[in-house]
Amino acid sequence: MQQVSLNTRKYVVISIIILIIIIYIAKLFSIQVLDNQYKTSASSNVLRHITQYPVRGLIYDRNNHLMVYNEAAYDLMVIPHQLKAFDTAALCEILDVTPSYVDAQLRKAKNYSRYKASVFLKQVSAMNYAQLQEELYLFPGFFTQTRTLRKYPDPIAAHVLGYVGEVNDGIVENDKYYKSGDYIGISGIERAYEHELRGQKGVEVFMVDVHNRIKGSYNDGEHDRSAVPGQSIQLTLDAELQAYGEKLMQNKIGSIVAIEPASGEILAMVSTPTYHPNLLSGRQRGVNYRKLQLDSLKPLFNRALQAQYPPGSTFKVLNALIGLQTGVVSVQTEYSCYYGYHIGSFSLGCHGHTSPLNLIESIQHSCNAYYCHVYRNILDEASDAGIVVNYQKWREIARSFGFGKKLGIDFPFELQGLIPESKYFENIYKSAWNSLNIVSMAIGQGEVLVTPLQMANSTAAIANRGFYYVPHLIKNIEKENGIDPKYEVKRYVGVDEEHFDPVIEGMYQAVHGGPGSTARFAKLEGIEICGKTGTAENPHGEDHSIFIAFAPKDDPKIAVSVYVENGGYGSVYAAPIASLIIEKYLIGEVKRGWYEERIFNANLLSREKKD
């Protein structure tokens, strides 16, 4: 028994020794093979991984005019683990920064990672960079990295092009491609096509000496990876037309949107006030952004996509089409107007014009009373099902033109406007809801809101006699086979083709007709322009001036919406601006110098009134 006990103890001791040996081996394996911490610590003393940032894709207009290019810049990087005592004052003098900046950036870098490089100072100037390179050996742990800055040769299309900025923590956490200090498209085309424009990062691995100086490529570049340049993009935008539109809108608040009806390509998208796109590029971007953000005129606000306005009398064209489609009105239908629509104690005024008017004449003279009749007929007589069903049918057709919903443009932050559902009015008026409650929507007032993009798109649908293509800004991507197919699909509206000709004739007569035609200021000899004026009420100052148009009448090449805040009647500013845009695009030059000078010199900013 004693022998058995001794043997048992021997085996136990041997088992413990073997177990300890296994544990040590496992630990060594973990440290040397599985755990990169020590490897990283060791290699970081002799190797430097330098990210090779790709050249961002260029941006051209439809005529291959360069709108965005790249310019070399330099970032000063730091690896906290490699830092040694250095002359802070000397570094501050070279970089033109303060000691407090140095302390703050070093703390930030250490909090990020002791072993990974992070940005110490972005976009070092060429002059400072030259001096820094000569004395960099005095500052162990620091090195430079080449980057590119976006540059804009022309001071136009800031809202369309957008800008590039540094990623935030949320982006880094959600997308592993980005690291702290990387740049990303923040707005506009830069944001919408970030993946195509950014390219793919590469890396170069270098040997460095004890003085932090690069001694050569590691392993003859075996571990290097070349950066892949971003793809260049061609926009549908016409840079010359865009520049002209911005000049017409200088010292005014509002927007111009021009679309090619045959394709849905956006030719111009102007939002004013605007700013020079170079203001949001470079080291002063943050300072300039804050100034623009605090500007009371809101130059960062893209009114073409995000401003939601009453459409005013331009909406009569839509109601004429829906009236024809639902059969509650015909081309020959006449209504009288006695300076407005009057029923019981209710009155909605109108300007003086001949009376009675038929449908074509009602568009030509923009009669409010006529469309009060039409709209109430749609809600009360389109079917026997009652106002709820009839209103929903009206809403369905309105939405088919792109109102009250996002169109799906290839651009961020589009708003949808408002075409309320029937429940909205049922909740307000209960059982007392009737067509007279909301008759102001007949003339584009009341609850209805639209964006300038939607107005231009609906005009393109009218020009096409019943269909449109989703508006878009992309014409071609360098390595892609065409654009997204959704931009090549015809979207048919809820009105039959046969109903468009009389409405278009009314728009033609509004421009080319005799006395009383509301859009005669838009007339252009030799070009058959079809248009409709609008004036939207503004409780805070002058009314807003609105105009929609397309040309030529039977072979439309351009559809335009113009919205001028505080511009008064649609015929005063919006119609002339649209006419000049059409002339510039279709003819290539503007011959009515006196006409455009009046618009160039008009300053409407003084008309703006605050709440």
Low-confidence stretches: none
Determine the N-to-C terminus distance.
104 Å
Anisotropy-based shape: elongated
* CATH second-level architecture of the largest domain: 3-Layer(aba) Sandwich
Alpha-beta content class: alpha+beta
Percentage of residues in strands:
15-25%
CATH topology of the largest domain: Beta-lactamase
Helix content: 25-40%
- What is the CA-based Rg, rounded? 33 Å
Total strand segments: 20
Instruction: Name the CATH homologous superfamily of the largest domain.
Output: DD-peptidase/beta-lactamase superfamily
Number of domains: 3
Biggest sheet overview: 6 strands, mixed
Helical stretch tally: 21
Mean pLDDT: 91
CATH class of the largest domain: Alpha Beta
How would you explain this protein's 3D organization?
The structure is a single chain. With 611 residues, the protein is of the alpha+beta class. It has 3 domains: 2-35; 47-235, Penicillin-binding protein 2a (Domain 2); 239-279 and 301-607, 3-Layer(aba) Sandwich (Beta-lactamase). It has 21 helices and 20 strands. The strands form 6 sheets. Strands 2, 3, 4, 5, 10 and 16 form a 6-stranded mixed sheet that branches. Strand 2 and strand 3 form a beta hairpin. The radius of gyration is 33 Å and the shape is elongated. The model has no long low-confidence stretch (mean pLDDT 91).
